[in-house]
Design brief:
The protein has 723 residues and is mostly helical. Among the domains are: 102 residues, Up-down Bundle (Four Helix Bundle (Hemerythrin (Met), subunit A)); 109 residues, Alpha-catenin/vinculin-like (Four Helix Bundle (Hemerythrin (Met), subunit A), Up-down Bundle); 114 residues, Nucleotidyltransferases  domain 2 (Four Helix Bundle (Hemerythrin (Met), subunit A)), CATH 1.20.120.330; 159 residues, Four Helix Bundle (Hemerythrin (Met), subunit A), CATH 1.20.120.230. It is built from 22 helices and no strands. Helix 4 packs antiparallel against helix 5, helix 5 runs antiparallel to helix 22 and helix 10 runs antiparallel to helix 11. It is globular. The termini are far apart. It holds the Pfam family Vinculin.
């Protein structure tokens, strides 16, 4: 930014003192920034000897270029006669351009080298995990298992930190979603690996126990491989990833091409357009061939598919005529044909969306009681092999239904991250179903085994958790379809805080029962309405990257997940999850208050006292919420009172946020209208530099997956039975 200002500087015969000072200030700012950047680069070089030489050369080049720019912009003394021979930006513009090019290339080189180091660290960490996993597979005694699993847990924690930072830094939302999915698998599988291995050690001759354990190891290896694929941006054997095309993305692309005919009649062929429609209609067969699609939906989809072909034929006919002669009547006919084709595709999109989401809603409602899982646990403990076989068949049917549901939802998910979430859910049901069956068979063969019972519980919990996540996913898909959340990526993969509490003496997290949910429903609904208000206020801001907007959006997303908790849905499963979420929400509010104070420093308007007053209110509310969320309680009644207090305080903060956002937006608009209510921001500020150097502080928007959960596994290992 600063370099662009220098390069674009226009030479003028008259140079005011203000101009000269500004140029010098920019040059000094660039040099100062380079100096700090290079210091970090040199520290990285000293820690990584294999790249030390390359990194050092790049740092030296960058420092030299920064100093050259500072010298060429040292123009404050130009009004003195003795400085006429001094070379400056005014006498040597090309010198500044050369120095700027050298600076940008050397800075890029430092960044690339640093990135290579990060990738190497992740690969090395993955290799350690794989090596320890191989040892875990071969152990034959509890004592040996305890020692190796302790080491494995520590290595997984390190891998979690590294990949969490990497996920945070990814700009590609698709890669970010894939990384989140892989890391979620690793988190869940760590606990599965513990109980499955213990079961295998307790019952070494049991085939179903061995199958169960092998499945966990295989899934973890696949997840580790996918993380490395994302980090290195490559696939084994040089294969290219072929992403399946969804109906939504196909229709979107098709409509863009059709509407493009208004601007250019010759930019694509009719064969191209026909092929695109054929691909879309082929995908609709996933719906029409599905045993779970209702007769009514199937008929409507077939009817709309037939209509789409007819509309395209009519469009192509008018289009070909218009290419030969552009008469007014033909162009009007073309416009009508374009509108009718797009309308037909919109109706088809609406129909498949309705088919997929209604099926999902029905299935999730039907399976919400988890009757099959409960029956498997009971019959397993009874040692009733015949009944277990009967219920495993029912679970297999349920699995097929849920897998089909995920496939259909993927077609209508609307965004790439949600598509990937659907694929991840499909994989989870595909893999977890057979693992539950093998765990249940093991328990039925050894009904008195506590560890076999615990193992089945762990796999059943993973299934229940995924079903609960599907409710959240369905709501997200509907929000995108109805335009409530659009392409915005909210806290979909929010950490599940309650599971990661490192305090082993903490009370067991509990869920709200139906009666408690009913009591708190009104408060939850108010919270939901406030999140909608905040979202609509943030959308009014032209600058979506503004710090105030980003903190506001973050708070809204977290409040929305707390609202879902009051309905028994979403990613917050237990009261402990909610309390931890409230702490994060309060921390985000504190950051917003800091941003408001910084903003008020630039304001010399009548609204400044009001802005500061509201910011102070926010700080006070954040402190109160933090105290409430961290307060220790015992007993069901006290826990519910704490839940109620946390949501009430969150609602009050959201109400205040609804008042703050329009106030700040108004001040910014006044400034743009020329009322000069904002002081001009200085081009360089020390506090901004300090903020930049703290980019890797622990206060991140997204936390690493289950690090504390993994640490718990490592700590709990001391409680392993050693018989």
């Amino acid at each position: 930014s600063q370099i662009t200002t220098l390069i674009n500087h226009k030479d003028k015969p008259k140079r005011s003192d203000k101009t000269l000072q500004a140029i010098q200030r920019v040059g000094q700012a660039v040099n100062l920034a380079v100096g700090r950047f290079v210091t970090v680069g040199e520290a990285i070089a000293n820690e990584n000897h294999e790249l030390k030489e390359e990194m050092s050369v790049a740092c030296i080049e960058a420092r030299r270029a920064g100093e050259t720019i500072a010298q060429l912009t040292d123009v404050a003394s130009l009004d003195h006669p003795e400085s006429d021979s001094h070379i400056t930006i005014f006498t040597d513009k090309t010198g500044v351009v050369k120095a700027a090019r050298l600076l940008l290339s050397s800075v890029t080189k430092v960044l690339v080298l640093a990135d290579r180091i990060v990738i190497k660290q992740i690969i090395t960490s993955r290799n350690k995990v794989l090596a320890t996993m191989e040892q875990l597979e071969k152990v034959s005694s509890f004592q040996e298992f305890v020692q190796i699993f302790s080491q494995f847990g520590n290595e997984m924690v390190e891998f979690a930190h590294l990949t969490g930072d990497r996920q945070n830094d990814l700009k590609d939302e698709k890669k970010k979603a894939r990384m989140a999915a892989s890391r979620a698998v690793l988190e869940k599988c760590t606990m599965m690996l513990l109980t499955a291995s213990k079961t295998c050690l307790r019952h070494p001759d049991c085939e179903s126990a061995r199958i169960n354990k092998d499945g966990v190891f295989h899934r973890m290896r696949l997840a580790l491989e996918q993380v490395i694929e994302i980090v290195t941006d490559s696939r084994p054997n040089g294969e290219n990833e072929v992403a399946p095309i969804s109906i939504y993305s196909g229709i979107k692309e098709f409509k863009n091409k059709v509407e493009g005919l208004r601007e250019n009649l010759y930019f694509l062929s009719k064969e191209n357009l026909s092929t695109m429609l054929e691909v879309i209609l082929e995908h609709t067969e996933d719906f029409t061939d599905s045993a779970y699609t209702s007769h009514e939906h199937r008929e409507h989809i077939l009817e709309l598919s037939k209509q789409a072909k007819m509309e395209l034929e009519q469009l192509v006919s008018v289009w070909m005529q218009a290419q030969n002669q552009k008469t007014k009547d033909l162009m009007e006919d073309l416009e009508v044909a374009i509108l009718k084709t797009c309308q037909c595709m919109n109706e088809l999109k609406r129909e498949v969306h309705s088919a997929a989401t209604s099926l999902a809603a029905d299935l999730l409602k039907y399976h919400t009681d988890h009757m099959v899982l409960k029956a498997l646990k009971i019959t397993g403990v009874e040692g009733n092999l015949e009944a277990v076989a009967e219920y495993t068949c029912k679970l297999s049917e349920q699995k097929e239904q849920l897998v089909e549901m995920c496939r259909l939802l993927r077609h209508v998910s609307g965004t790439e991250p949600l598509e990937i979430t659907c694929i991840h859910a499909e994989d989870t049901f595909q893999v977890t179903g057979p693992q539950i069956i093998s765990a249940a068979e093991t328990l039925a063969l050894h009904p008195s085994s506590k560890i076999a019972k615990e193992n089945l519980e762990v796999f059943c919990e993973a299934w229940e958790s995924q079903l609960s996540d599907m409710s959240m996913l369905l709501r997200e898909i509907n929000d995108v379809f109805e335009g409530r959340r659009g392409e915005k990526r909210v806290y979909l993969s929010l950490p599940r805080p309650g599971k990661h509490n490192a305090n082993l003496k903490a009370l067991k997290p509990v869920k709200l029962d139906t009666e408690e949910q009913a009591k708190i429903a009104k408060l939850g609904l108010e919270l939901h309405l406030l999140t909608s208000d905040v979202d609509s206020e943030t959308e009014k801001w032209e600058d979506q990257e503004n710090e105030i907007v980003q903190h506001g959006q973050g708070m809204s997303s977290m409040a929305y997940s707390m609202y879902l908790f009051t309905r028994g849905e979403g990613l917050l499963k237990t009261t402990q999850d909610l309390f931890h979420q409230a702490e994060i929400f309060a921390a985000e509010g504190t950051k917003l208050a800091s941003a408001l104070h910084a903003f008020s420093d630039q304001v010399h308007d009548d609204d400044k006292p009001l802005l500061l007053l509201e910011a102070e209110k926010l700080v006070s509310m954040c402190k109160q919420l933090q105290i409430t969320a961290k307060a220790s309680v015992q007993g069901k009644s006290a826990t519910f009172t704490k839940v109620d207090a946390c949501i009430l305080k969150t609602r009050n903060m959201m109400t205040l946020l609804c008042q703050l956002l329009p106030l700040c937006c108004k001040l910014l608009r006044k400034n743009k209208a020329g009322n000069s209510c904002l002081k001009p921001a200085p081009p360089w500020r020390e506090d901004r530099i300090r903020t930049g150097t703290n980019a890797h502080t622990p206060e991140r928007r997204t936390e690493t997956f289950g690090i504390k959960s993994l640490e718990n596994h490592v700590t709990n290992i001391t409680f392993l039975e050693s018989k």
